[in-house]
Design brief:
143 residues; alpha+beta; four-stranded antiparallel β-sheet; 4 strands
């Protein structure tokens, strides 16, 4: 009888070991799948963000910015103009849910003088969709 009890205990112990190994194996596989999917999503987002930065850095985008600045200030980017220089804030680049890319331009190296542009692609190439001018810059342009 004692031998039967010991054999039953050993059998139960083996079953527990098998169940534990199976549980940890399934958990490991699940974690690998989650990490793999997470890595794929991260890489896709990074690639998409890099593409947006490249579009904003392009010469065509810079031409569109300068056209937009000259529409606001006819003497923009000249010594007589209110807008003497501009710089694209690459940290502000984000995807517009309605399509296109949103980014911010800092005017005259003053973080309070900003214009938020929305650029999108159409059959003719890249076009500025709209601009949001900071209050301080708007006041300067009105004077």
């Amino acid at each position: 009888m004692k031998n039967d009890k010991k054999e039953n205990e050993r059998a139960l112990s083996e079953v527990k070991k098998i169940k534990t190994r199976t549980f940890y194996s399934i958990l490991g596989i699940f974690l690998l799948i989650v990490i793999g999917i997470g890595g794929k999503v991260y890489m896709d987002n990074k690639r998409f963000n890099d593409e947006m930065v490249n579009v904003v850095k392009s010469g065509q985008t810079k031409r569109e910015i300068e056209i937009g600045l000259k529409n606001l200030d006819s003497k923009a980017l000249t010594p007589e103009g209110i807008i003497k220089s501009y710089e694209i804030d690459y940290e502000s680049i984000e995807h517009n849910p309605m399509g296109g890319i949103m980014y911010e331009v800092v005017v005259n190296q003053d973080k309070d003088l900003t214009i938020e542009f929305d650029i999108s692609k159409d059959s003719d190439g890249l076009k500025n969709g709209g601009a949001v001018i900071s209050e301080k810059l708007s006041d300067l342009l009105e004077k």
